[in-house]
């Protein structure tokens, strides 16, 4: 059976020789010299019990910090709740806690340091749905940065994130949808636990003006249900949906019909923008993406599905023809949906995205539809 990936596989990759020596020193540092890590997005609000414990038996674990170059201050890598509790204790007049025992790291890798911060928090507390979502996206970004630095990772990023957090790949895909598509206003409500995960995910599938409509209803009633979101999606199609007549080049002017010329129940034509290398696997993924568009109640357009088994010629010629047909499809559709795998977009996808921007198309970025892909 394949061993599941763990962040420890990266965080503990030092050689045995390095493990024999300490990469830190122990120092007592004044609390005023300690600065929370700006990358820490976890809540540190509830520290009452921790304060009582420190006052009763003292600080049992030192903070882990790293020195800020050319200053006498330190960034806290691990121990933000302890720092918050100690700060309150000192502010209440307990000056004996001003000097805090700290492990000062002497070898620093910023990416691995943040991964360790995430790993420590994820295993030592109960996280909110917002924190889990933010954590998943941040892990993915950091692993992608490691990958760009040449670190070999065992599998696709989405799979690694799922294994690390012990959740399904489908759940990671839902988190990506919330991260990429949910409006800032609803993200704030999600962060404050006023909107639950399932509702936030459902809202993230709405178009921009539909989210504005949902937000208006939410503010009026003080709540919103999944059923209400689905009703908005079903009964209130985009008022900005337009059918365009486009000339033959990217730079030529776009002529649009007025929205009122469209029937209210008109389905959207959606271009499926996805990676293609000529392999059957990419073709199968494109089919799944098209199925996803259909499930959302729209009509998919995919150059890959249309041409994978049709085009002949060498690889370069086939790829060029595929891209050209994709451009023409983008001209006639209403929206462009970009289907990312592992948060990576190919050069051809970037070209298509740029064309969509120039033509004023609505662009939606979606990840993780092919769970087993």
From TrEMBL:
Residues 27-121 form the ParB-like N-terminal domain. It holds the Pfam family DUF7768. Coiled coil: none annotated. GO terms for cellular component: chromosome. SMART domains: ParB. GO terms for biological process: chromosome segregation. This is ParB-like N-terminal domain-containing protein. It comes from Ruminiclostridium papyrosolvens C7.
